[in-house]
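Is zinc ion placement plausible here? Inputs below.
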Amino acid sequence: MKPVYILAIESSCDETAAAVVRNGREVLSNVISSQIALHTLYGGVVPEIASRKHIEKINPVILEALSEAKMSLDEMDAIAVTYGPGLVGSLLVGLSAAKAIAYAVNKPLIGVHHIEGHVSANYISHPELEPPFLSLIVSGGHSHIVLVKDYGVYEIVGRTHDDAAGEAFDKVARAIGLGYPGGPKIDKLAREGNPHAIAFPRAHIEDCPYDYSFSGVKSAVLNYLNQCEMKDEEVNRADVAASFQEAVVDALCGKAVAAANAFGYDKIALAGGVACNSALRQKMEEMCAEAKIKLYYPSPVLCTDNAAMIGAAAYYEYLKGIRDGLDLNAVPSLKIGER
Ligand code: KG4
Ligand code: ZN
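Reply from A.M.:
I modeled the complex. Tokens:
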């Protein structure tokens, strides 16, 4: 069969990214221009600055992706782009570029759900992985347990009632003075701390065994820091980081493995930026080995925002004949499985 080449574009938050992907699994190029240094100044992503920066970067990043792949636009079979969820001003930059290219070279346009992209990153890192499997999606904006019943067919069985896991990492990191983005910094500092030093709470939500809540643990950390300050006690930041991380990882792993057992799934794929977390990976490895579940996670560069994952998700849409019109709009709060 003739190979399918997809040019994929991603600009939903603070990374401008483009990639060329062959047959959904083989990455020919994966260019990412990160704005992290810019937003660090403000302690978080500033939407207006993010969209302006995307405008500056989008064309160079797309050209670089094509040139690294040694391919031309004419050789592409489709143009894929994230159209939600995300920051509307950021999404619109990638979407407008994708529409303009699709129109100019007369190629099909395929809109991709950002989170479905995160799940599909596993198809690149694990060429043998096929649905059905359960995915624990943990990013800056999402904490979901999803049954991936087939390519592009999802059922959410667990979700967060308040903060996403990555959001909690970022907020706690800010509170202990680590800055943005917090997840990787807490991960690093936690290696020097004792995860059992402080007993932070794990939320149990009545009648929703697979749902999450991270605002409680976040508030508990803030209270702990306040109390130390009032008592004039020195804070061991490494212990706080390790104990907080332990509480979050405990909840994430426990509920994901319980859901896999309850729904009869023997494969779990981690997805999203928090899937980079070393404690999460380690605990998941241990729990999955015990429960005889096979664990998958993408390589670190494919866990955080990138366009290759969008190309992987788009390939399966392409095979199903899904095409979008030039009237495709950005949908900042797009739900998983929606079109
Ligand atoms: O998936 P992602 O790149 O963007 C969203 O779609 O949100 O995820 C970003 C999130 C941030 O909250 C960041 O702090 C977190 O992923 N993150 C981590 C780690 N690396 C990134 N959280 C914990 N440990 C890490 N090593
Ligand atoms: Zn993301």
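Short version: The chain has eleven helices and ten strands.
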